[in-house]
Write a structure and sequence with these properties.
By secondary structure, this protein is an alpha+beta fold. The protein contains 5 helices and 15 strands.
Length: 225
């Protein structure tokens, strides 16, 4: 991946397509884990919490090697971009260079529950617009990887909204292929205006599945309280 290209796309749109992240054998191995209990720390039914329709499971520690490796490498790739954003919004706080250091900061303040997750949607399911914050320590970027083949379902588009101050929201629909990922803003991002940079709020979700079944992997770089 070209960091300057990814940075430019994130700055312009709030997201960037990352291309292939997982080989087909890794995708199949992860999907095969979903019916099992041991790899996961919790199972969330969205309807019970008003999150939408569908379900997801958070992985336990340690996560599968493919996820742990991706999480570590992607963090190192994205940390310089995250720190550029911090500078642009006028924050003196900077994120550490390694994911191990980031997790140590989270754990020191009680954010110790792992956040990588798998999401499963069937016909009629959807995910409401939301933000994955989980505590005081928030890394501003996260990644979603499509685990299903695009022929396995209809609908289920990945949707991003950008709430600009005193303006109506802007919507993006992101198309993904199996094993491919997209990186996007967790909460807010800097946007260049006529008077310099200002903050815009971002939310993400999934439109309703019209037919079939859709699996995705979510990689969040901060842990949860």
């Amino acid at each position: 991946m070209d960091r300057s290209q990814v940075s430019e796309e994130l700055n312009n749109r709030g997201y960037a397509n990352l291309g292939p992240m997982l080989a087909s054998k890794d995708v199949a191995a992860l999907k095969a884990l979903y019916p099992q209990k041991d790899p996961f720390r919790s199972h969330i039914i969205m309807r019970r919490h008003g999150f939408g329709e569908g379900e997801y499971k958070y992985f336990s520690n340690p996560p599968p090697k493919s996820i742990a490796s991706l999480r570590k490498q992607l963090y190192s790739f994205l940390a310089p971009i995250a720190n550029e954003w911090q500078e642009r919004i006028g924050s003196e706080m900077r994120f550490p260079e390694t994911h191990e250091e980031m997790l140590a900061c989270c754990h020191a303040d009680g954010q110790s529950r792992p956040t990588p997750l798998m999401l499963k949607y069937g016909e009629g399911d959807f995910n409401c617009l939301h933000q994955d914050l989980y505590g005081e320590h928030v890394f501003p970027l996260q990644v979603v990887i499509l685990l299903s083949d695009v022929s396995d379902f209809e609908g289920g588009e990945f949707v991003l909204t950008e709430q600009r101050p005193r303006m109506q929201s802007r919507v993006e629909v992101v198309q993904l292929q199996q094993g491919h990922g997209v990186v996007f803003a967790v909460n807010e991002r800097p946007k260049l205006g006529t008077r310099g940079y200002y903050r815009v709020k971002m939310r993400h979700g999934v439109s309703q599945i019209r037919s079939g079944e859709r699996f995705t992997l979510g990689i969040i770089f901060h842990d949860a309280a």
